[in-house]
Amino acid sequence: MSTSTAPAPQTLDRRLGPLDAAAVIVSNVIGGGILFTPPQIAASVPSAVLFLSTWAVGGVLAFFGAMAYAELATLRPRAGGEYVYLRDAYGSLAAFLTGWTSFVAGFAGAIASNAVFFAIYLGRFVPGAANDNAFLLVPIIPGALQLTFSPQTICALLLVWGLAFVHLRGVGPGTLVGNILAALKVGALVVFVALGFSIGAGNAANVTQGGPVAPTNWLFALIPIMFAYSGWNAAGYIAEEIRDPGRNVPRSFALGTGAVVALYLALNVLYLYVFPIQELAKIEGSVLDRVADGLIGAVAGDVMAAVAVVSLAASNSAMTFAGPRVYFAMARDGLFFRRLAHVHPRYRTPASAIIAQSIWSSVLVLSAETTQLVNYTGFSITLFLALAVGAVFILRRREPGVERPFKALGYPVAPAIYVIASAFILVNALWRDPGPTGTGAFIIALGIPLYYVFRRR
Predict the structure, then answer these.
(1) Which tens digits make up the pLDDT trace of 16-57?
(2) Tens of pLDDT along 341-391?
(3) 18-106+175-319+368-456: which CATH topology?
(4) Contact of 310 with 121, CB cutoff 8 Å
(5) Structure pTM?
(6) Distances 213 to 43, 53, 59, 167 between C-alpha atoms, Å
(7) What is the DSSP-derived secondary structure letter of residue 16?
(8) How many CB atoms lie within 10 A of CB 400?
(9) DSSP H/E element including 223
């Protein structure tokens, strides 16, 4: 008589503390959003007071969402973040679609975009790094899609695969590199803000300038702001690897999100201190560069390029850490390529998922499709985060007797405000700008037939 035993599901080791997870949040959030979106928002909201109010409201919403996530992550301290919460609240199709969107655009698209900007900024210090003259073109779809190899794309690929190698080699090396980059990023920005207000030439009256703004414009401005704040949920992706999740997961959400909100508000006040709202709206490229030029002078370009290099590398490190945990969780449930559920026997990392994300990010770098994908992700990010926060209500009703180590602050009002505000933002976006919004919805919908393929397998 013989018996067979199903293999035990792969699990990840708990090695992270609250500061480690908070550093992942900070690095994941602070990236290109705060550098490039303020002019766009200033154009929609040409009133300094109301401009700052959009960032403050976005910060409050992010904190409300983070506290709801803290409840979900302590209730389900598993890898995958909203994939897990949507799976248990709405079913496997909704969960698959959020994971699919994260893979196609959310993480890989942002990693590729950051890597290209990294090469551009690095060009100030490494001659040729920003050179986009192609030395090899590989046609994939003649006349429509080709892979472009240039010094710039090679430099971008070195960042993508260098960080993949670090995070594949273990949680310890990945955390060390991520924490160092996060500390350098935040430290540089804090020093910049302090010096800007203490020795910089600006006008405090710029900060209190008012003016009329259409309510729809104010609401529409929240879409790029929500994108700029996106990443506050990063601790949920790595909850399976946080020690004592009942205590440390809420701490990491509060510390990481609170630090980002405070820094974003300080930076935007500094932007207005240097430029009136009308001038801020006309800036092209990185706002930080122009502000530094007004405060520091001729050396501003090199100073801000160094800050940007560190900032972009830190952001990619965090996403290289967090993103693969989503695909790992999907594969562990049998809803993605099963190989991605593999845990490296020595380094205890989701090695196959890290490699898969890096491959797709590399394709996006070489095909120059990163900007378009990132433009379409704001809608999907807002949608899935709102659904995940709404899962707090569903799981409380469905599992009233389950112990919750942490309960969302301000429940039910705070999470309800987040969900309602997100709904208004999404409806307004569909009405005001149906093109990119509709494309974002189309990318999500492409995952539906794939879901049924994986489920059948």
Answers:
(1) 999 999 999 998 888 777 877 899 899 989 999 999 999 999
(2) 999 999 999 999 999 999 999 998 998 765 555 556 677 888 898 999 999
(3) Amino acid/polyamine transporter I (1.20.1740)
(4) no
(5) 0.86
(6) 10, 12, 20, 46
(7) B
(8) 7
(9) helix 215-229
